[in-house]
Design goal:
The chain folds into 3 domains: 289 residues, no CATH class; 135 residues, no CATH class; 59 residues, Arc Repressor Mutant, subunit A (Orthogonal Bundle). The protein is 39% helix and 19% strand. It has 15 helices and 18 strands. α6 packs across α8. The chain is elongated, with a radius of gyration of 29 Å.
Length: 504
C-alpha cells in the first residue's frame, strides 16, 4: 500500500453523498411534473404538500432507475427496503418531514473505479437510497424577503453515499466525475448540474496518519467540479489551521461561497437520532423480486467498464486510454465510429484525447455537441496514414476546419450511429484545409534525394560521426533535412532515404 497523501502533515479523509435527480417525468410519490423551469409553485400537488387525506404512491420508474444503478456498480439490490420519515423543520420542506430510506436502503454496497494521478483507484459505496427532494428557498427580487418555490418538492432522488476512502480534493473530483458520467450513461439522470440534477455533499475531516478519524464537516450542495476542488482545499486548510492553533473542530454543515472561495458554517451537524426516523405509515415495504431485477439487467446498455475492457482486448488500447474512450456514451460511439473508418485504434484514441478534447474543453462542450462528424475526423486521420500530412499538421488541419465551421452537424443521433461494418469517410473539408494552408507533405522521392544530397554535402562532420557509430548524428541530419523542406517532408521517407544514402 502506498503512503497516504499528506497536506501539511495531515491525512485528508473524504466521503461523498451525491444527490442524483432521476429522469422520471413525474415525481416519486405523485403525478406532478418534474419539468425544469416552470413558474414557481405550479408543479406542487396536494400529495407533494402532504395535505390531509392525501396518500403517496411510489413511482415504479424511480425504482427501476435505482435497480439499474445498483446493477451497474455491482451492489446488492435489496429484495425488501423500507421508506422512512426524516423529521426536521425547514421553510422549503412543506410536510415537516422528508420521505427517505434509512435502515434498509434499496441499493447496498457496490464500488466505483476511476483513474487519478496515473493510477486506478476503487472507492466502495455504502448505499444508494431513494428519497424525495425538498423545495427551494429564493432570496432575490423579493424586496428584502425570501420566497419559497415548491416545484422541486417530491422530485425523485437517488442519494449515493461513498465510504470515506477518498484522500484528496482531486480524488473526490475524479470520483464525482465518474459517477456523473455513469448515471448519464445509464440514462437515469440528465446530469445537468446547473439545474440541480446532480449535486455533491462532501464530508471532510483531517487527521494525523494512523490516528482515528477526525471530526467531519459537510459541505452542502456543490454543483460544479471546479467548486468541489476549491471548497475541499479551503476546508482542509481551515481545519488544519484550527488544529494547529490548538482549537477543536465542531461537527457542522457548511456552505461554499464561490465568490470568496471560502466555506462558512450554516448550522451544527445533526446526527441520525436528531431526525427521529421511523417507517412511513403510508408506504408499505418496497418488494423487488428477482424476476424484476433480471428484466432490468437484460435492458442495461453495455457498461463503461465492460466496454473499456473490450477496447483493451479488442483494440489493444492501454487501460487508461480505454477508460477515456468510455467517459461518456457519445464519446465511446464517436471513438468506435472513427476507429471503424480508419482501423487504427491507438491513433484515433490519441487524437480524441489530444486535439479534439482540448478544443472541446476550451469551448465548454461535450462531444455530442461537436459539429465535426466522425467521417471528417476519419478523413483527417487517413490523410495522416497515407502520408499526405504529418501528425503535427493534422492538428493544424483540425483547427482550420473548426475555425472555418465547415461542419457536419452532430446531434443526439450520435447515440444511434451504426458502428459496425463499412462506413463513409469525408475528405472534402480535410483536403481543402490541407491545400489552403499548404500543409501537404513532400513525398516526391527524386526531390527529397536532391535535398538530402545537399544536406549531406553541407554536413560532413555529422556524416563522419554517424559512420563512427554516433546515432545522435543521424537525428541531426534528419533535423537539417526537415528544416530544408520547411517541415513539409514526409518524416518516414526522409529517414528511409537518408539511412540508405549513409549506409551505402
Amino acid at each position: 500500500m502506498s503512503a497516504p497523501q499528506l497536506v501539511r502533515g495531515y491525512e485528508v479523509v473524504i466521503g461523498l453523498e451525491n444527490h442524483v435527480q432521476l429522469s422520471t417525468r413525474s415525481k416519486i410519490f405523485s403525478g406532478s411534473s418534474t419539468a425544469f423551469g416552470a413558474a414557481p409553485n405550479t408543479q406542487a400537488s396536494a400529495v407533494d404538500l402532504a395535505l390531509p387525506g392525501t396518500l403517496p404512491v411510489l413511482n415504479r420508474g424511480a425504482v427501476e432507475r435505482a435497480i439499474r444503478f445498483g446493477l451497474a456498480v455491482g451492489a446488492k439490490v435489496a429484495p425488501l427496503s423500507i421508506f422512512a420519515r426524516k423529521n426536521y423543520f425547514y421553510p422549503d420542506l412543506p410536510k415537516g418531514y422528508q420521505i427517505s430510506q434509512y435502515e434498509i436502503p434499496v441499493v447496498q454496497g457496490g464500488s466505483v473505479s476511476f483513474f487519478v494521478n496515473g493510477g486506478k483507484k476503487t472507492v466502495n459505496l455504502t448505499r444508494a437510497h431513494l428519497e424525495e427532494d425538498a423545495g427551494k428557498s429564493l432570496h432575490e427580487d423579493f424586496h428584502g424577503m425570501s420566497g419559497i418555490d415548491l416545484n422541486r418538492a417530491g422530485t425523485p432522488l437517488l442519494e449515493i453515499v461513498s465510504e470515506p476512502e477518498l484522500r484528496s480534493a482531486v480524488e473526490a473530483c475524479e470520483y464525482a466525475k465518474t459517477l456523473h458520467a455513469l448515471v448519464m450513461w445509464l440514462g437515469i439522470c440528465d446530469g445537468n448540474m446547473q439545474e440541480g440534477s446532480f449535486r455533491c455533499d462532501v464530508n471532510v475531516s483531517v487527521r494525523k496518519p494512523g490516528e482515528p478519524f477526525g471530526t467531519r464537516r459537510e459541505i452542502k450542495n456543490l454543483n460544479s467540479f471546479k467548486f468541489l476542488i476549491q471548497a475541499v482545499n479551503f476546508e482542509v486548510n481551515w481545519q488544519i489551521d484550527r488544529l494547529e492553533d490548538g482549537l477543536s473542530i465542531q461537527q457542522a454543515t457548511v456552505l461554499f461561497n464561490p465568490d470568496t472561495g471560502e466555506t462558512r458554517a450554516m448550522r451544527s451537524k445533526e446526527d441520525a437520532a436528531d431526525y427521529r426516523y421511523f417507517p412511513d405509515p403510508d408506504l408499505p415495504p418496497l418488494l423487488i423480486g428477482a424476476d424484476w431485477v433480471e428484466r432490468v439487467k437484460a435492458e442495461l446498455p453495455e457498461l463503461p467498464a465492460v466496454m473499456a475492457a473490450r477496447f483493451v482486448q479488442q483494440d489493444g488500447l492501454p487501460e487508461y486510454d480505454a477508460q477515456m474512450m468510455t467517459q461518456s456514451m457519445p464519446f465511446a460511439c464517436f471513438y468506435e465510429a472513427v476507429r471503424n473508418r480508419t482501423g487504427e485504434p491507438k491513433l484515433v484514441a490519441n487524437f480524441l484525447m489530444g486535439e479534439v478534447s482540448a478544443r472541446m474543453n476550451k469551448a465548454g462542450i461535450g462531444i455530442e455537441q461537436m459539429q465535426i462528424s466522425p467521417a471528417v475526423v476519419a478523413g483527417l486521420l487517413k490523410r495522416v496514414l497515407d502520408g499526405t500530412i504529418s501528425k503535427q499538421a493534422a492538428k493544424q488541419v483540425f483547427e482550420s476546419i473548426w475555425n472555418a465551421q465547415r461542419w457536419t452537424v452532430v446531434t443526439d443521433a450520435v447515440l444511434t450511429w451504426q458502428i459496425e461494418g463499412p462506413a463513409d469517410v469525408d475528405y472534402a473539408a480535410v483536403d481543402e484545409a490541407i491545400e489552403s494552408n499548404g500543409l501537404k507533405q513532400m513525398s516526391d522521392t527524386g526531390e527529397l534525394e536532391r535535398i538530402l544530397d545537399e544536406v549531406l554535402a553541407a554536413s560532413p562532420k555529422s556524416v563522419e560521426e554517424f559512420r563512427a557509430g554516433k546515432d545522435k548524428a543521424f537525428n541531426a541530419l534528419v533535423g537539417q533535412a526537415m528544416k530544408a523542406t520547411k517541415g513539409k517532408a514526409n518524416p518516414g521517407l526522409v529517414n528511409e532515404l537518408l539511412r540508405k544514402k549513409l549506409e551505402g
